[in-house]
Amino acid sequence: MTVTLQRILASEFPTWIEQSCAEYVGDLLAQGRSHEEARRIAVESMARSFPKSTQSPGNEVFHVMNEVGTAVGYLWIGQDVTTDPGAWWVWDVFINADQRGQGHGRTTMLLGEEYARSHGARSLGLSVFGFNTGARGLYDSLGYETTSVKMLKKLE
Question: 125 — phi, psi (to 5°)?
């Protein structure tokens, strides 16, 4: 399957922000957060990255397009917030549920690496929720190394 990245247009950006927020809320709920807390965290995160609710420097958001030109997901990539200009970050990568298992995620990550490298990146990092074993397996197979582990025990 051929996958390409297509920059999201400014007119599509508000819809993407809502979709990305909704996906993040879902992940936070799966992690055990309350809906109110999950929504607050997601909205605050987006406001920090996109203060004017529009594209901002240092962030690139792409549709992941399949071979027939249909969007099957998205990729948000950009410079890390550290002082190292060669450090880049995958802020969000999402493949529609009905399109998973077809190699789109792998190809998207490889295209993201290529894009970052062409813009001066020397490293590419990401975070993944512990429960997302499919994504963790993909990142391991692509050569990403675990650099930290955050653990939690509920005391009820």
Answer: -110, 170
Q: How far apart are CA 88 and CA 71, in angstroms?
A: 24
How confident is the model at residue 1, as a pLDDT?
A: 65
Helices 13-30 and 35-49: crossing angle in degrees, nearest 10, is: 140
What is the four-CA torsion angle of 123, 42, 76, 86, rounded to 10 degrees? -20
How far apart CA 113 and CA 35 sit, in angstroms, is: 33
CATH value of 2-139 in 3.40.50.1110, 3.30.2320.30, 3.10.450.50, 3.40.630.30:
3.40.630.30
Instruction: Provide the residue ranges of all domains of the chain, joining segments of one domain with +.
Output: 2-139
Burial bucket for residue 43 (CB in 10 Å: 0-12, 13-18, 19+): middle
| Burial (Cβ within 10 Å: 0-12, 13-18, ≥19) of residue 20 | buried
Do 123 and 88 meet the contact criterion of CB atoms below 8 Å apart?
yes
Structure tokens belonging to residue 83: 């002082």
pLDDT band at 120 (very low <50, low <70, confident <90, very high): very high
